[in-house]
Design brief:
Elements (H helix, E strand, L loop, with lengths): L15 H14 L9 H8 L3 E5 L5 H9 L4 E6 L2 H13 L5 E5 L2 H7 L6 E7 L17 H7 L3 E11 L2 H12 L4 E2 L16 H8 L5 E7 L1
Parallel strand pairs: 1-2, 1-4, 2-3, 4-5
Antiparallel strand pairs: 5-7, 6-7
The structure holds S-adenosylmethionine.
Length: 220
């Protein structure tokens, strides 16, 4: 897969709460990136139905989903440290012992660390939209990226995505159509899934009168 860099590291100071949570809980709930993979991660992803969230931001969905699904193992990937600190705080506060985080580029984590057939689902909510045409190549959800997820998904494993950028939503739909192993039972956008809590980026989109589009596809 071509190496895309789908994020910019936004320089943002940590709040005291985030800094304290990083200091106190990072070693317990974060798994380090290793090119050769990690036994700890393999054990985590293969000992319960596993859901991976790519780009969890401030972790609102991750924490809510984890709380509602104590039977699943949830892996969050992001590079944005204030969000990692906030999610670590929530993990500790809500005793979400079944969540792990890798603070690293998801594209690299996917190509090096996730075992085959280990994922029951993948969540990608409001990925960076890269609205300028010349930046579209930096959008995460493209055919090669989706293809890289296929071997990691179990049969009938799902990819659930949402965005408020109409042209990105259409591009996502088209990319899904371009991957033979993926089936879309809605044949287009799906109905909003009621369990998904509102995130900061969703609110921002709604404030600009953007329509929220959701896509749910499964591996055949
Ligand atoms: C626009 S924000 C959306 C965050 C959150 N999902 C939400 O709905 O509020 C996109 C997030 O994806 C993260 N991200 C983008 N590309 C990534 C990558 N390749 N690896 C890890 N995180 C990435 C960014 O750091 C950012 O936190």
């Amino acid at each position: 897969m071509n190496k895309i860099r789908s994020y910019v590291l936004r320089p943002k100071r940590l709040t005291n709460l985030q800094a304290r949570a990083l200091e106190a809980y990072r070693s317990t709930y974060c798994i380090d990136f290793h090119e050769e993979g990690s036994d700890e991660l393999t054990e985590f992803l293969t000992s319960a139905p596993a859901i991976m969230e790519i780009g969890f931001g401030m972790g609102e969905v991750t924490a809510a989903f984890a709380q509602a699904h104590p039977d699943k193992h949830i892996l969050g990937l992001d590079v944005f440290l204030p969000g990692v600190g906030k999610l670590l705080y929530e993990i500790h506060e809500r005793r979400l012992e079944h969540v792990r985080i890798i603070v690293h580029d998801a594209v690299e984590v996917i190509s090096h660390m996730i075992p085959a057939d280990s994922l029951a689902g993948v969540h990608i909510f409001f990925p960076d939209p890269w609205p300028k045409k010349r930046h579209h190549k930096r959008r995460l959800v493209q055919v090669p990226f989706l293809q890289s997820l296929i071997p990691l998904l179990q049969k009938q494993g799902y990819i659930y995505m949402a965005t408020d950028w109409e042209d990105y939503a259409l591009q996502m739909l088209e990319a899904c159509r371009g991957v033979e192993e993926l089936e879309n039972s809605s044949n287009g956008f799906c109905e909003p899934q009621s369990w998904r809590p509102m995130t900061k980026f969703e609110k921002r989109g709604l404030a600009k009168d953007h329509v929220i589009r959701e896509i749910l596809v499964r591996k055949r």
